Amino acid sequence: MKVLIVKTSSMGDVIHTFPAVQDARLNRPDVSFDWCVEEAFAGIVALHPEIGRIHTVAVRRWRKALFSGGTWREAALLRRTLRECRYDLVIDAQGLLKSALVARQAAAPIAGFDRSSAREPSAALFYDVGYAVPRGLHAIERTRRLFGLALGYQPDLSILDSGIVPPAGDIAGISGRTAFLLHGTSREDKKWPAGDWIEIARLLIDRGMTPVTTWSNKREKAVAEAIAKAVPSTIMVPKSPLAEIAGIIGHSTLVIGADTGLTHLASAFGLPTVAVFLATEPGLTGPRGQYASTLLAAPGERVTPAVVMAEAERLLQCEALDQANAGKN
Q1: What digits encode the pLDDT tens for the residues 96-121?
Q2: Residue-averaged pLDDT of the chain
Q3: Burial code of 79-93, b = ≥16 C-beta within 10 A, e = fewer?
Q4: For residue 82, what are the contacts with CB-CB under 8 A and spacing of at least 6?
Q5: Which of 14, 63, 108, 267 has its CA 20 to 30 A from that of 180?
Q6: What Enzyme Commission number(s) apply to this enzyme (predicted)?
Q7: CB half-sphere exposure, 149, CA atoms < 13 A
Q8: Peptide bond into 10 cis (omega under 30)
Q9: Helices (H), the chain
């Protein structure tokens, strides 16, 4: 059975879909998966070994040039390519009008959330089969349940496995015990102050770990440079393709991050991950993983570097204990 997954964005939403693919791999080994995703996140989807062909869309870019001939040619090519693949089923795991419209281009039966479950109820009008999945569940569980209903199995929700693996080999000459600091995020009110990142870098050095950081725009570069200047042992990775950054994160010992997609990626890798949420609630979309923890700023209070370091040490100890116990068995 040949299935197309439509989950175009955002990075966190894409990562939240991986456990559903793992469930299907265990319960329906006869199913093969392709994926349709925003072009910026194709490298993230490629981390999952069960995904075959990756089709890219550029909805964000297309919206800015809706009447451009180039936009229409790209959309027509996508439509033709999807139809040539002859899918047996399309699963729209996003539940938005834009994702439903993309799913329709494959000219195959579409399964998705029903009207009461979809994020945008109008999306359900485009599905051949809609499934009721409670909206009050975490996004990962909602997607796992959807796949189970669409493909005829009951996922084991007591287990959480993303199935993704970081690229093998040495990454940019970085080795040893490293802690990746993901300070960049989309909104200013979600950013931990630069001074706190500098202090956490110092605390990491004191504990024998090398801080690693990077940047993707001028503001983030200024913060990364400030950390590296104050704590010279910090490794500052130049602005790089997303897939390369994913590889470095995947080989880290610890990740400390703001509310950003790469923090979700770290938790999906199964790494000890401390997420610092300042202006948003992790709620039903926060990072999930065996060694993932979210620190939420209380009203009128701040999350201090000391608190973050203490939580990081707790997660590292839990991981070490589990590894020791596994070695005895």
Answers
A1: 999 999 999 999 999 999 999 999 99
A2: 94
A3: eeebeeeebebbbbb
A4: 4, 36, 55, 105, 106, 107
A5: 14
A6: 2.4.99.23
A7: 20
A8: yes
A9: 11-27, 42-45, 59-64, 69-84, 97-104, 139-151, 194-206, 218-230, 242-250, 261-268, 305-328
Beta bridge partners of 179: 211, 254
Q: So what's the pLDDT on residue 172?
A: 60
Each as own residue / partner, the long-range contacts of residues 290-298 (CB below 8 Å, 24 or more positions apart, any chain) are 290/160, 291/267, 291/315, 291/318, 291/319, 292/266, 292/267
| Secondary structure letter of residue 243 according to DSSP | H
Beta-carbon neighbour count of residue 324 at 10 Å? 9
* Residue 176 dihedral angles phi and psi, to the nearest 5°: 80, -165
Cα gap 166→162, rounded to integer Å: 12
Alpha helices in 152-296 (DSSP H): 194-206, 218-230, 242-250, 261-268
The structure tokens listed for 13 are: 């939403």
Tokens 């870098």 locate to: 201
How many other CB atoms are there within 10 angstroms of residue 222's CB atom? 11
pLDDT digits (tens, 9 = 90+) for 192-243: 999 999 999 999 999 999 999 999 999 999 999 999 999 999 999 999 999 8
pLDDT at 246: 93
Which amino acid makes up residue 198? I
